[in-house]
Amino acid sequence: MSASLIIYINLYFLLFIGGAGGKGVWGKLGEESDLDAAIDMKDPNYDSDLLDDDNIVLREITPESSDEELKNSITFNILEYYEHGDTDEAAMTLSELNIVSKWHLITQVSVEVALEHKPSQREMTSILLSDLYGRLIKQKEIAQGFDVILANLPDLILDTPDAPIVVGCFLARTIADDCLPPKIIDFFKEKNYSDLANQALIKAHNLLNIKHGLTRLDNVWGVGGSLRPVQYLVRQMNMLLDEYLCSGDLQEAIRCILELEVPHFHHELVYEAVVDVIEAMNTHTEISMCKLLKALYDAIIITPEMMNKGFDRVFDVLDDISIDVPLASAVLERFLDMCINAGFLGREVLLKIPTRASSRKRYVSEGDGGRLKEA
Fold first, then answer.
1. Domain annotation covers residue 21
2. With b meaning 16 or more CB within 10 Å and e meaning fewer, what string describes 31-44?
3. Where is it found, in Gene Ontology cellular component terms (predicted)?
4. pLDDT-based confidence at 215, cuts 50/70/90?
5. 235 and 203, same structural domain?
6. If 0-12 CB within 10 Å is exposed, 13-18 middle and 19+ buried, where does residue 139 land?
7. Residues 149 and 197 reside in one and the same domain
């Protein structure tokens, strides 16, 4: 065998069998998993973006929800916040919503929801906005939220007649909490929304410019009912009863009672109303107070428990009242008959009226030795 033939055979084995190379061959076993294999730029599947690049990060992206979906979600979270009162939990749930660029909706929806609730919930809303500022929403987004609210006032007033006043209070409180600058009012005035918006801006301006305005705005919504001093509540109840007797406006009296938000203290209202009847000793007061108590009872604003507790408190101090009003027992019995006929008291209540013989004692004359005798 010639030397040239031997060289040819060795190259054949090296290249085509041992080397797994050459045209039309598959390559070495396992070569398909070789990550370091050279990349053929002429390969039709070649993609330059697939080159090793640590700056390329793949992640799943969910499109931002629609305005309507976000408003519904925010409303749900705000109503839940009214139940638990935890701003940290509220912030966490709001941060989990799919909000990308519409953060102003938090301010907008929060205030719009609060418009239809009581002062205590409005106070909670102001506290929430203050806590979310710098944490979840920025000053620009808060301003944008109020911008939309002011523009929507013609629609908001349909459900909340005093919406301009309430929005003005919210705006002033937000400024007092350093979430917005005072100059924002002038900025909003230049936009000429509507007369209703101007009312809101004037209200905010006036609140901020009264003496110690920034300090007073901490209590712009009033203190929560359960946190108010007892003497304050008693004074408020006496005032609304006096106003009711003067005006005869039953609905206004009911509204004022509801605004106090102290259902656990309604026995005081019953007590004060009955005492007013005894001290007035006139038919007009009896009829008016009976009408008020019946309306509150029928609307389940005052429960039977609170009603009975109020009357029981009067019975307990009837002897003391009789010192200043000798006919107190007679007036009370007449009023009780009126209430029983009205249907919100049972006749058994008459058995609770104390008698002077069982509860009062007096000193007899010196001739009796100063002994205590039953009256």
1. no
2. eeeeeeeeeeeeee
3. cytosol; nucleus
4. low
5. no
6. middle
7. yes
Taking the C-alpha atoms of residue 306 and residue 370, their distance in angstroms, rounded to an integer, is: 43
Question: What phi and psi values does residue 86 have, to the nearest 5 degrees?
Answer: -95, 110
Residue 363 — φ and ψ, nearest 5°? -85, 135
Cα dihedral 16→19→24→27 (10° resolution)? 150
First-to-last CA distance in the chain? 153
Q: How many domains does the chain have?
A: 2
- The structure tokens listed for 219 are 């209590």
**DSSP labels, 116-180:** TS-HHHHHHHHHHHHHHBTTTB-HHHHHHHHHHHHHTHHHHTTT-TTHHHHHHHHHHHHHHTTSS
- For helices 328-342 and 266-280, give the axis angle rounded to 10 degrees: 120
Buried b (16+ CB within 10 A) or exposed e, 318-344: bbebbeebeebbebbeebbebbeeeeb
Question: Residue 364 pLDDT more than 80?
Answer: no
φ and ψ at residue 45, rounded to 5 degrees = -90, 5
Residue 219 Cα to chain centre, angstroms? 15
If 0-12 CB within 10 Å is exposed, 13-18 middle and 19+ buried, where does residue 282 land? exposed
Residues 253 and 244: beta-carbon distance below 8 Å: yes
Tell me the residue range of the domain where 108 lies: 67-218
Q: In whole angstroms, give the CA distance from residue 166 to residue 76.
A: 21
CATH number at residue 270: 1.25.40.180
Residue 212 has pLDDT above 80, yes or no: no
345 and 246 belong to one structural domain: yes
pLDDT digits (tens, 9 = 90+) for 265-318: 899 999 999 999 999 999 999 999 999 999 999 999 999 999 999 999 999 999
